[in-house]
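[STRUCTURE TOKENS]
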Amino acid sequence: MVEAALSTMTEIRWHARAGQGAVTAAKITAEAALAQGMHFQAFPEYGPERTGAPIQAFTRLANEPIRIHSNVETPEVVAVLDPTLLGMVDVTHGMPDDGIIIVNTDTDPAAIRATGDVNGGQLYTIDASAIALETIGRPMPNTPMLGALVRATGLLDLDNLLDDLRKTFSKKFSDKIVQGNVDAVSRAYDEVISE
């Protein structure tokens, strides 16, 4: 589904709470796509600017220049960094029936599906917060969600993403934090569960 969509454009919508790193995840995804020769857009939509408020971020990837400049309304991929948003926000709004949903949760896809909060699409789950706590020392789900995204969609090459993550994070973080984030992405890539 996604590879065929990339011949035109693939849109990703990130749902999170402010402070969980969704904007950073959207940007890292875009930068990794650039390293693979793709065109991209990455941008946030903020509501109330306070930690914990629901936010959205968006990423567009294409093999040709992107000529639209609006929020993502029909995402092929939805990444949910905070599972408490599932009951509050229609995260699948506008997503086609064959879309991909990735949720940060410690429950399996069948349990999420049983709640009725996620309709349609192919559902993946990953305990990104726990992975981040174990590898980075903080329950920051954004980088593990990148690993799950790469595995679920095949949009990006994992090694390219990890290289870009190292370059970007080494400018502002210690080697220990950079390696923790690399480990978080790699673990999530291996541990993501599909239905």
